[in-house]
Amino acid sequence: MHREPEPTPTEPAKAADDPPLKADNGYTLGPVQAGPACCDPQPLIQVENFSLRYGLKTALANVTLDIYRGCITALIGPSGCGKTSFLSSINRLTDLIPGCGITGRICIDGGDIHDPARDVQALRRQIGMVFQKPTPFPLSIYRNIELPLHEHGVKRRADTVAIIEQVLRDVGLWEEVHDRLHSSALSLSGGQQQRLCIARALALNPRILLMDEPCSALDPIASGIVEDLISRLRGRYTIVIVTHNLAQARRIANYAAFFWVRGHAGSLVEFGHCRQIFESPAHELTAAYVNGARG
Amino acid sequence: MAEMVSMKSMRTPRDCFAKLAIYCAALLVCAAFAWILSDIARGGMAHLSLDFVIGSPRDAGRAGGIGSILVSTALVLAIALMAALPLGWTTAALLAEYVSAGSRFGGAVRYSLQVLAAVPSIVFGLFGNAFFSIYLGLGFSILSGGLTLACMLLPILVSTAESGLRAIPDAHRLSAAALGMSRTSTLFRLLLPIAAPSLAAGLLLGIGRAIAETAALLFTSGYVDRTPGSLLDSGRTLAVHIFDLSMNVPGGDAAAYASALVLIAALLLINMVAMRLATDWQRRKIMAENSNGYSNIDAPRA
Ligand SMILES: Nc1ncnc2c1ncn2[C@@H]1O[C@H](COP(=O)(O)OP(=O)(O)OP(=O)(O)O)[C@@H](O)[C@H]1O
Ligand SMILES: [Mg+2]
User: Fold this and answer.
1) Per-residue pLDDT for A10 more than 80?
2) Residue B194 and residue A138: Cβ atoms within 8 Å?
């Protein structure tokens, strides 16, 4: 598609010069990189002609799109256009919804995820997901992360403790909670809960992170912290993020996909480099949406 | 300013009356409880002693103690719980987690439980007598009494556990699935610990109902007041004993009161222990798998 080498759209937002927001102390991911050069993108997730329906109602029609390894892909579009549905198709969470049916293919590394021989648990382990509303389990902070680790075979306490500390540092939560790991996760603030959920997803060392409006329930400061974090994860993870905040999409994403409701089903209108979608959209709906005229 | 926000200063006579009525109702409830308790205590205290609690009944229960009866009660209760708990909680897990809300099968199971819950206990007694005692040949025995009680407890256990599980938001199930957790471990490691208070509440209701039961046991475990030698012996439970003393034994009132006192004390004790166990278990599950020595993870400062 877009062959010309392009720098990452914009600098990741360094939310003002507020010292508490620049949390770059002690993270284990290494220095902040702008991610791999996206001039030679390799598709990791390939979606072909994917449609999804709830009962008789089609929620997504004929989506075809590649998601590139190591990049941040933003999904934008009005409410109800199927962004969440698309996201939860990638880790087959839609399997859990009664009456939900799909056609088409989603391949990860060339392998169809709906292959009957596919181990769904292993698939979901590779794909971390963060929901729109923070969803910590009503357990202790420690147990929130220990539980999935235990499920996936990390049983030695020393390993568990090390991983928990690492991921909590990665999301910048360690300093805030290390002395109360055994208190309830529900005692955290909303932003802390969301970061805990991100940490929980990271603990399984996934390759792909799906984030459904991770900042929508957060105040601007917490949202800045999470956004910062997402930018820092670029390159290590392939990230697909749904956001209603176009400025945010513009700041952090390498690619953007614009969804719209056509007829009664959501469909993909345009996909491309973030900068291109925002600055020179090919489709008039996209232009209207990113310029705030509609949606 | 203060008058604007304070409810107190806006009280009308009607409010006062309503408040009075509410307090009176609450007081009445407490008074009824206190009256029952004091009546039983007054009637039974004199008769109560250690010998009474561990001794065997003599003279149809007028003299002696209730030791053998406590043994039978404990055995019947244990059988009932051992049969009903696994069955009831598994059914609840099935209904809440594995069967879709509108499914026919789930509906049928729920409907039969509702019917079961509405059946009077005397009918359970007749059924238990016909099925366990006669058809299965268990006779008048602790075993048939316990199993009959188990049937009675099922609806309570299932409905409390199911509503406890259903009250857990789906978001937790989705998050667990997104983390690659299997359904089974989601159930055992996440959902059941969260629902533990409901499970405990159901358990307590069940125990209360089982201990208080007479009608269903008259025809199944019988009223032989010796210490049962095996589960196939007949045995008299505390409630049956009280019933017998007060209805059929002239001059047995004092012993009946004392037995009732023991029954109430036992109920209170069981309530306390069960609550304690449930919270402990929940805490263990919620904090960490093996919680020894975790609390001192200190931050190796960066
Ligand atoms: N579990 C479900 N059962 C039936 N219909 C559903 C279900 N989930 C979503 N839908 C429908 O599918 C369509 C797409 O929903 P989806 O949640 O994917 O939208 P979205 O783009 O994420 O919206 P938002 O931005 O508001 O989160 C909507 O019309 C919605 O009503
Ligand atoms: Mg959504």
Assistant:
1) no
2) yes
Tell me the nearest-neighbour CA distance from B288 into chain A, angstroms: 5
Task: Retrieve residue A278's tokens.
Answer: 């925002």
Q: Could B299 and A26 be called an inter-chain contact, meaning their C-beta atoms sit closer than 8 Å?
A: no
Q: For chain A, say whether B189 makes contact (Cβ under 8 Å).
A: yes
Give me the pLDDT at residue B285, please. 67
The answer to whether A105 touches A56, Cβ cutoff 8 Å, is no
Residue A154 lies in a domain: no
Is the CB of A148 less than 8 angstroms away from the CB of B189?
no
- Which residue lies with its CA nearest to atom 9 of ligand 1? A85
DSSP calls for A196-257: HHHHHHHHT--SEEEEESTTTTS-HHHHHHHHHHHHHHBTTBEEEEE-S-HHHHHHH-SEEE
Question: What does DSSP assign to residue A140?
Answer: B
The CATH number for B50-286, chosen from 1.10.1610.10, 2.170.16.10, 1.10.3720.10, 3.40.50.1970, is 1.10.3720.10
Contacts of B295 in chain A (CB under 8 A): 182
Q: Domain for residue A241, yes or no?
A: yes
Q: Among A121, A139, A161, whose Cβ lies nearest the Cβ of B286?
A: A139
Q: Could you tell me if B190 lies within 8 Å of chain A, comparing CB atoms?
A: yes
Give A173's contacts (C-beta < 8 A, 6+ positions apart).
A192, A195, A196, A199
Q: Chain A residues with CB inside 8 Å of B183's CB?
A: none
Residue A7: left if φ>0, alpha if ψ -120 to 50, beta else—which one?
Answer: beta
Mean pLDDT of the residues in chain A: 82
Asked if B131 and B173 touch (Cβ cutoff 8 Å), the reply is: no
Residues A170 and A202 sit within 8 Å (Cβ to Cβ): yes
Domain count, chain A: 1
Give residue A109's domain range.
Answer: 42-134+206-290
The string of pLDDT tens digits covering residues A184-220 is 898 888 888 999 999 999 999 999 999 999 888 777 8
Which range is most confident: A108-122, B145-159, B258-272? B145-159
Share of chain B above pLDDT 70, in %: 90
Using a cut of 0.90, tell me whether the model's pTM lies above it.
Answer: no
Which chain B residue's Cα is nearest to A136? B172
Q: Give B259's Cβ-side CA count (13 Å radius).
A: 32
The C-alpha atoms of residue A163 and residue A218 are separated, in whole angstroms, by 26
Domain holding A281: CATH number?
Answer: 3.40.50.300
pLDDT value of position A162: 92
| pLDDT grade for B29, boundaries at 50, 70 and 90 | very high
* Chain B residues within an 8 Å CB radius of A178: 297-299
Is the ipTM beyond the 0.95 threshold?
no
B167-181 per-position pLDDT tens digit: 999 899 999 999 999
With contact defined as beta carbons under 8 Å apart, do A253 and A274 qualify? yes
- Residue A195's nearest CA partner among A230, A160, A220 is A230
Residue A36 lies in a domain: no
List the single residue in A150, A165, A204 with the smallest CB-CB distance to B289. A150
Give domain status of residue A86, yes or no.
yes
Distance B297 CA to ligand 1 centre (A): 43
| Coil/strand/helix, residue A164 | helix
Tell me the ligand closest to A244's alpha carbon: 1
Residue with the nearest Cα to atom 1 of ligand 1? Answer: A97
